[in-house]
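stage 2 :: seqdesign
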């Protein structure tokens, strides 16, 4: 897996961003207890974005600067990440 970032969210959770199977995957998990454990809140969030779509968006933002052949090589390389 292509780790990008991982760490705590204060005292209540953690996050992780990786490239996995051609996608950018962001995960966050938070949880807290309120009122001496009377109320417990937990939530997980998973977001997946196709790696090719990210590269296509970069091409639009940097017009004329990104070679199409390089983009295809990168797209194929991202798909190889387990």
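stage 2 :: out
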């Amino acid at each position: 897996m292509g780790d990008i970032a991982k760490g705590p969210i204060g005292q209540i959770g953690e996050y992780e961003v990786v490239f996995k199977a051609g996608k950018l995957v962001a995960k966050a998990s938070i949880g807290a207890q309120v009122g001496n454990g009377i109320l417990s809140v937990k939530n997980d969030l998973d977001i997946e974005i196709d790696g090719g779509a990210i590269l296509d968006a970069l091409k639009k933002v940097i017009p004329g600067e990104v070679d199409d052949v390089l983009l295809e090589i990168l797209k194929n390389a991202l798909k190889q990440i387990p």
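stage 3 :: structure notes
- DSSP finds two helices and four strands in the chain.
- The mean pLDDT is 88.
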